[in-house]
Design goal:
The complex is a heterodimer of chains A (364) and B (439). Chain A is of the alpha/beta class and 364 residues long. Helix content of chain A is 43%, strand content 14%. The termini of chain A are far apart. Chain B is 40% helix and 11% strand. Chain B contains 16 helices and ten strands. The chains are: A alpha/beta (364), B alpha/beta (439). Chains A and B meet through α1, α8 and α9 of A and α1 and α12 of B.
Chain lengths: 364, 439
């Protein structure tokens, strides 16, 4: 083994570390507003709104122009490429709107999944080609962090050793490239909740996947203090007959993380997967109350679990703008409390938030 | 506050008790509480014939209803789980508790496991012949220390020969140690062997029949074990082969120990020989430890039931640049934070070639390092606990008491150092840790 060839200067490291710390400041999490065009289509279809560029812009505008107290619970927003160059009603570019609130701007940079031949329907994720140049441009255009999603699934033969190794490797390459361009990489190795496996199985698989991810990050010389992790919570499969309490989910999740995620990672921002808004908040809250030592921040990076009610309130009508923002702000505040383990559910969650957001084999 | 019993940090006593009751039924005691990760809370294993098979790592928390009707647990079939359970909940609990006891606050490990060959070198330095009797007499000096060491030493690592020796009064050494609440460990590796095709690198042997040996050592009083791998830094080293091979053999050893209720102390020592600087050592340490923990994961080792015995991150012996204890501390803690999962119960540093005082001062600085440290950081010292004692003894019976005093003194100093409370006369003033981004 040769001498290290420093991948980053101390100044670069400090910049990355500071950005990561700002995103996961106490009580704050991430709004994942990076749904691709196709995925937005599915969302809008549910409320009978046409999937055109203006409608997508309009909905994001409503969220982004929410009252500035949103920045007490949201530390970062992940954008989709199109949205990064759209403007608010007042003519300001969206990244600027977000930055003016003191929130960090992020960008989804992967280009979706691609099949792994010889496996049982497993995938890797593409998007490495020209990634360096794209990151440099995104940095100029106001972004300070990026997101890349890999997908694994649990079944009799899955995840296979190849799927685990390949996805870990591609996440590490992506992370390395981002850091060279001053972007904090959010590393997302999502294990889908599809299936009838129990909580233990998910915990076991999560531990194996995360061990592989962090070995790959080490091999690729990634600066861990300048990264964030976006994993699934450890939950039973959607068709598992056995029900588990939030406390059990919390314990399984924190145990898996303690066995695999080094303390130098500043924050872990869970994805919500197919969970309802309320479920996602209650589980996050339970995770933050687990009586084991947790050296990283444990917060949220939610898409559906922050926006479902807002979308239902909007219905595509401008008149509903304030109502939409109120509902969105409410969810954000709840999750901000959950990220500190201080959320006390009143026991009367409304129907929209309790509705399960699960769809089979979720694809962006 | 940090609850002494379950070693869990909580903001207040109230919060601690509140969380304890939330997660457990009321009859829980602290020891079990601290093992909740992976342990089935509260009870002994379910009665035979009921749900034993496959009830593994993490089972749902047992409720009162379950204890009244154990057949409820039987329905918890885990046919979908691919894992093949390595350890039962009771086994995990035992391992975790043992590990916690060895590294209880203020305590560390006395490494008294020098092989016959190593003892030859030590005894030669003080002009004493290397006989079995002399080795016995020397260990007796250490083991007859008075109660002052009970709060400083959590475990003693024995060499095989010593495990079966007695004091002058015929008391087995193992009994002397155990009777003061100190845990007994044993070195189980069989030394290094060369890796052909490398530049003088080695792996460590000793896996053959290790399972049977562990079972026997457990019967003979040992509850933990130690295995030392060695890596070195030079232009070509450590090679990828040396890193992977040593990581693998450490994982195999760990896995076998845990099957027998023995906590494995994992020692991937990177030698301080050479003229490399602090940064190089930090870089190598990070690569080595990342490989070690990947191997542990691959071999399904239960991390909460292990201890790590690494080198501190230091410059090579012939490096011309000098570094402060704070720089050593920052480099060491940074390397560990990037590689050692929080689930590992404790890190007990080896002293390598450091002097007694150097080792203590470094350990103290490590414990005062302002970065968050999720594991206990203590000592597992051989020479750094015994050098003065050996010199005071010189093989003369009349020097025994004085020699024991020297040992007690070092033990007390290190007990303070592993709590970050060792303020030596040297430099009580400023402790400048500097920017963590430079590491």
């Amino acid at each position: 083994m040769t001498h290290q060839f420093p991948s980053l200067s101390p100044e670069q490291k400090k910049e990355l570390s500071d950005i990561a710390q700002r995103i996961v400041a106490p009580g704050k999490g991430i709004l994942a507003a990076d749904e691709s065009t196709g995925t937005m289509g599915k969302r809008l279809q549910k409320i009978n709104v046409e999937n055109n560029e203006e409608n997508r812009r309009c909905f994001r505008d409503i969220l982004f122009s929410t009252d500035s107290s949103i920045s007490n619970c949201v530390g970062g927003v992940i954008f989709f490429h199109e949205t990064l160059y759209q403007k608010s009603d007042s003519g300001k570019l969206f990244p600027q709107v977000i930055k003016d609130k003191g929130i960090v701007v992020g960008i989804k940079v992967d280009k979706g999944t691609a099949g792994l031949n010889g496996t049982d329907g497993e995938t890797t994720t593409q998007g490495l080609d020209g990634l360096s140049e794209r990151c440099a441009q995104y940095k100029k255009d106001g972004c300070d962090f990026a997101k890349w999603r890999c997908v694994l699934k649990i079944s009799d033969g899955c995840p296979s050793a190849l799927a685990i190794a390949e996805n870990a490797n591609v996440l590490a390459r992506y992370a390395s490239i981002c850091q060279q361009n001053g972007l904090v990489p959010i590393v997302e190795p999502e294990i889908l909740p599809d299936g009838d496996h129990d909580l233990q199985r998910c915990q076991y698989v999560t531990e194996k996947v995360l061990a592989a991810v962090y070995k790959a990050l080490s091999d690729h010389h990634v600066y861990l203090e300048g990264t964030l992790l976006k994993p699934n919570m450890v939950t039973a499969g959607h068709s598992c007959t056995k029900k588990f309490t939030p406390q059990e989910v919390g314990m399984a999740t924190v145990t898996a993380l303690r066995r695999t995620v080094p303390a130098s990672v500043p924050g872990i921002c869970f994805l919500s997967g197919g969970q309802s808004e309320e479920e996602a908040s209650v589980n996050l809250n339970a995770i933050n109350q687990v009586p084991l030592h947790r050296p990283w921040k444990l917060t949220f990076s939610y898409g559906r679990a922050l926006q479902a009610s807002a979308l239902a309130a909007w219905q595509g009508k401008a008149a509903n703008k304030k109502a939409t923002q109120d509902v969105f702000l409410n969810r954000a505040k709840i999750n901000g409390l959950a990220a500190k383990g201080e959320y006390k559910p009143t026991g009367s969650a409304d129907q929209a938030s309790m509705q399960s957001l699960y769809t089979a084999s979720y694809v962006y | 506050m940090k609850c002494e019993k379950c070693c869990i940090r909580q903001k207040t006593e109230e919060l601690h008790n509140k969380k304890k009751s939330l997660y457990l039924n009321r009859t829980m005691n602290h020891q079990v509480f601290s093992n909740i990760c992976g342990a089935k809370v509260g009870a002994e294993a379910p009665p035979r014939g009921v749900g034993l098979r496959g009830v593994t790592h993490f089972s749902r928390i047992q409720t009162r209803a379950d204890r009244e009707d154990p057949s409820r647990l039987f329905g918890q079939s885990v046919r979908m789980t691919h894992q093949f359970p390595t350890l039962s909940e009771a086994q995990k609990r035992e391992l975790h508790e043992t590990a916690l006891r060895i590294v209880s606050p203020g305590k560390g490990i006395l490494a008294a496991d020098e092989s016959v060959g190593s003892m030859a070198k030590r005894l030669a330095q003080v002009g004493v012949e290397n006989t079995e009797e002399n080795r016995r007499q020397y260990r007796q000096i250490l083991f007859s220390a008075d109660d002052r060491i009970n709060s400083c030493i959590g475990g003693v690592i024995f060499f095989h020969e010593t495990l079966y020796q007695h004091s002058d009064n015929g008391v087995p050494f193992v009994k002397m140690i155990r009777d003061r609440g100190i845990l007994v460990g044993v070195k189980v590796d069989k030394g290094v062997v060369p890796l052909a095709g490398t530049c003088g690198e080695t792996t460590t042997q000793g896996l053959d029949g290790l399972s049977e040996r562990c079972a026997q050592y457990k019967k003979d009083g040992a509850v933990f074990a130690k295995w030392r791998c060695v890596l070195k830094i030079s232009d070509a080293n450590p090679s990828k082969l040396a890193i992977t091979e040593n990581a693998n053999v450490l994982a195999r050893y760990s896995s076998i120990c845990q099957q027998h209720g023995i906590v494995p102390v994992i020692e991937p020592e990177i030698l301080p020989d050479g003229d490399h600087d602090l940064k190089r050592c930090q870089y190598i340490t990070e690569k080595v430890l990342a490989a070690v923990y990947k191997a542990m994961s691959d071999h399904h080792v239960y991390l909460e039931g292990t201890l790590l015995k690494p080198n501190m991150v230091t410059p090579g012996h012939s490096c011309s640049t000098k570094y402060s204890p704070e720089e050593v501390a920052m480099a060491t803690v940074t390397a560990l934070r990037r590689t050692v999962p929080p689930a590992v119960t404790g890190v007990a540093f080896l002293s390598g070639g450091q002097s007694e005082e150097e080792a203590s001062v470094h350990l103290n600085a490590i414990n005062n390092c302002p970065l968050a440290k999720p594991w206990i950081l203590t000592f597992s010292f051989g020479r750094a606990l015994q050098a003065s004692a050996l010199r005071a003894w010189r093989g003369h019976k009349e020097n025994e008491k004085a020699a024991t005093e020297q040992f007690i003194k070092r033990a007390e100093v290190n007990s303070l150092a592993c709590q970050g409370k060792y303020d030596n006369h040297g430099d009580v003033g400023q402790r400048i840790y500097g920017s963590c981004h430079a590491y």
